[in-house]
């Protein structure tokens, strides 16, 4: 699984931070193998093919899908919804807002997880509450005024063992008001593409 995530970063040619802390260290696959995965050429490395306009668009789509852990159908549904909401306006901003509003992403943005995949696991295992109610759906969309907390029973779990130390150094995005002591976040604005 680790190799699969690292290959995704190598495939799109940049760090997507799918492995959390590992991506910042010398073990990062992009740092060690800054070329696409696949059969090697005579020089020992694979070549990144020159890309067409379609190829560039596909790579951008893959970056978003890989970063947020979405399947193609999920991404397409978000894109359609963003198009209809934007009504000829900024589709990219609407899409970004939808993706950032997912509960698994909010848990990641709160600093409770090193990566979105770990945040998804935290949510699906029922460790998170929204406005005092347990929610275990990663795609659940939060809105302004929602309070996201760790269930009191879950705060002693191994997955949250070193979280206090990590959160001391963490800085949340501007649309998220974070109480580090209570491990509680409140949505105070809608995510904008500029705050990525």
Structural commentary:
The protein is an alpha+beta fold and 196 residues long. 40% of the residues lie in helices and 9% in strands. The protein has a 5-stranded antiparallel β-sheet with strand order 2-1-3-5-4, covered by helices on one side. α1 (2-12) packs antiparallel against α3. The radius of gyration is 18 Å and the shape is globular.
Helical amount: 25-40%
Work out the oligomeric state of the chains in this entry. Answer: single chain
Rg estimate, integer Å: 18 Å
Strand line-up in the sheet with most strands: 2-1-3-5-4
Query: Architecture of the domain at 102-195, according to CATH?
Result: Roll
Order of helices and strands: HHHHHHHEEEHEE
Count the DSSP helices.
Answer: 8
CATH class of the domain at 102-195: Alpha Beta
Mean pLDDT: 81
Q: Largest sheet at a glance?
A: 5 strands, antiparallel
Structural class: alpha+beta
CATH superfamily heading of the domain at 102-195: RNA-binding S4 domain
Q: What characteristic shape results from the CA principal axes?
A: globular
């Amino acid at each position: 699984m680790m190799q699969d995530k690292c290959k995704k970063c190598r495939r799109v040619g940049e760090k997507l931070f799918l492995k959390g802390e590992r991506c910042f260290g010398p073990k990062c696959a992009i740092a060690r193998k800054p070329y696409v995965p696949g059969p090697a050429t005579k020089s020992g490395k694979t070549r990144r093919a020159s890309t067409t306009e379609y190829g560039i668009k596909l790579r951008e789509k893959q970056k978003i899908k890989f970063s947020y852990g979405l399947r193609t159908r999920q991404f397409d549904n978000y894109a359609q919804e963003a198009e209809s909401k934007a009504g000829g306006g900024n589709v990219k901003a609407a899409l970004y807002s939808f993706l950032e509003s997912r509960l698994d992403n909010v848990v990641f943005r709160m600093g409770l997880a090193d990566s979105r995949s770990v945040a998804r696991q935290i949510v699906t295992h029922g460790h998170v509450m929204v406005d005092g109610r347990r929610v275990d759906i990663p795609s659940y969309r939060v809105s302004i005024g929602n309070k996201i907390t760790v269930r009191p029973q879950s705060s002693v779990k191994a997955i949250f063992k070193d979280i206090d130390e990590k959160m001391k150094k963490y800085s949340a995005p501007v649309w998220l008001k974070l109480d580090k002591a209570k491990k509680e976040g409140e949505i105070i604005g809608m995510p904008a593409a500029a705050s990525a």
